[in-house]
Amino acid sequence: MTKQHANWSPYDINGGTVVAIAGADYCVIAADTRMSTGYSILTRDYSKIIQLADKSVMASSGFQADVRALQKVLEARHLIYQHQHNKQMSCPAMAQLLSNTLYFKRFFPYYAFNVLGGLDSEGKGCVFTYDAVGSYERVGYSSQGSGSTLITPYLDNQLKSPSPLLLPAKDAVTPLSESEAIDLVKTCFVSATERDIYTGDKLEIVILNASGKRRDYMELRKD
Amino acid sequence: MFRNQYDTDVTTWSPAGRLFQVEYAMEAVKQGSAAIGLRSKTHVVLACVNKSTSELSSHQKKIFKVDDHIGVSIAGLTADGRVLSRYMRNECINYSYTYESPLPVGRLVVQLADKAQVCTQRSWKRPYGVGLLVGGLDESGAHLYYNCPSGNYFEYQAFAIGSRSQAAKTYLERKFETFTDSSRDNLVKDALFALRETLQGEKLTSSVCTIAVVGVGEAFHILDQETVQGLINEFEIVGEEPTPADETAAPDQGSGAAAPGPSEDVAPMDI
Q: Is A166 touching B (CB cutoff 8 A)?
């Protein structure tokens, strides 16, 4: 007799795409606001982005219930850190915390595909990209979620290396200006929205820089 | 208060129906340096006197932020106060996590009081030797509570605890009726005046005191030294001559037996 399997799954897939790009003195984190299940849309106006600390912003796609649970855990842990150290967590510290938190549930994972963006202690943009169980790496840019397969090759083309002559291709913060990076992000999402059915409705962009945090919105195709 | 045969254990009643260990714990609070709290309809101000063991050392931390909407100032064994602050912070974080809303002050205070009560009814524990002035804001407005080692708690318009607190209480008793509708700045000013009363002639400067504020639209935070000194100068609060109020209050200082002396008599762990 074959093993009995569950007739339900603890997970669901809510779709959506997230992107982050690190600049010399800024970081751009963006996500669409569509939340789906199966072939249906649950809502066109759900934020996947959360500010965890002064200089750390996380965007997550996957199963939004797990994403929300993960966000709450990190928020609580950040409060504890602030009480103990009398200061905000740095972005690299938050990156490690996120990794540990994810691995903590290695055998019943958070179905969350995260991208953490912010400014490091020198004020330079930083982006960390994760898998569902906490494997992470600091990169110059990243994309996760249903549209990531469409966006990542485009970002590789635009951002991978300062010069095509420089080999091996180095992954560093982009020399692009803040507004150029924002335009690039908008282009990514407009393109992804065309072909990925789970990406669309509205684009939410968060920009972190020395002057603080800014939030921008842009309409996307709703079909 | 003098030693007798019923005071060794917190679990031993005296024939008069008293728990002496608990009362001795409240004595520890009176020995600590002063802490003051006042509230209006929209704000709570906590103030305390900074006393350090010697000129070479820094002063102990007596005001703790518990959450954005709650802060606490302590008098007595500061180590006990630190531990209780950690407990309060934890409770606030857990409540926020579960209910995604701030823990109402009254609930926190009850939990704290219940925790203190446990230590009055276990033979292997001792009561916490710290009094806490808990100031916070919730849906029902601004609140100031006093939690004592006995496990009792009371809500106040204004209160002072610690050494020479009677002088501050006398000042507060005169002025408390104006506090409810007081502006934030006037409330801070009253806190500074009350604090000055406890200094008994010593000059009030920002290095001697710590002030913290929480209010509508204002998260709990400790005012920095410059701001406090600016306020002291602005309100022209100087402590040269003791006012008549002090002279009548002086004999009432401290407990039944010998009045507690200044810092030299205080055990190193009590600030």
A: no
Q: Which two tokens stand for residue A121?
A: 């202690």
Q: What is the mean pLDDT of chain B?
A: 87
Q: What CA–CA distance (Å, rounded) separates B164 from B29? A: 11
Structure confidence by residue, pLDDT tens digits, B152-193? 999 999 999 999 999 999 999 999 999 999 999 999 999 999
Task: Work out the widest C-alpha separation in chain A, in whole angstroms.
Answer: 64
Query: Where do we find the tokens 């997970």?
Result: A11
H or E stretch covering B134 = strand B130-138
Tens digit of each residue's pLDDT (9 = 90 or more) over A115-127: 999 999 999 999 9
ipTM, two decimals, is: 0.88
Do B86 and A83 lie within an 8 Å CB cutoff? yes
SS3 B249: helix
- The DSSP call for residue B163 is T
Is the bond leading into A10 cis (omega within 30 degrees of zero)?
no
Distances (CA, A) of B224 to A146, A162, B137, B203, B210: 49, 46, 21, 19, 8
Nearest-CA distance A83 → chain B (Å): 8
Chain B contact present for A169, CB below 8 A: no
pLDDT tens-digit readout, B209-238:
999 999 999 999 999 999 999 999 987 765
Residue B103 Cα, gap to closest chain A Cα (Å): 14
Name the pLDDT band for A168 (thresholds 50, 70, 90).
Answer: low
Interface of B to A at Cβ within 8 Å reads 65, 86, 89, 93-94, 96-97
Minimal CA separation from B97 to chain A, in Å: 6
Interface test with A, best of B63, B68, B72, B89 (most A CBs within 10 A): B89
Among B32, B146, B132, residue whose Cα is nearest residue B87 = B132
Q: How far apart are CA B58 and CA B229, in angstroms?
A: 18
| Three-state secondary structure readout of A112-132 | EEEEEEEECCCCCEEEEEECC
Other beta carbons less than 10 A from residue A43's beta carbon: 11
Contact B93 A72 (CB under 8 A): no
CB atoms within 10 A of CB A122: 7
Question: Which phi and psi (to 5°) does residue B158 adopt?
Answer: -160, 145
How near does any CA of chain A get to the CA of B157, in Å?
Answer: 28
In the A/B pair of chains, how many CB contacts fall below 8 A?
14
Q: Is B193 within 8 Å of B171 (Cβ atoms)?
A: yes
Cβ of A83 under 8 Å from any chain B Cβ?
yes
- The model's pTM is 0.87
pLDDT digits (tens, 9 = 90+) for B124-155: 999 999 999 999 999 999 999 999 999 999 99
Please give the Cα distance from A81 to A83 (Å, whole number): 5
Q: Is the peptide bond before A168 cis (omega within 30 degrees of 0)?
A: yes
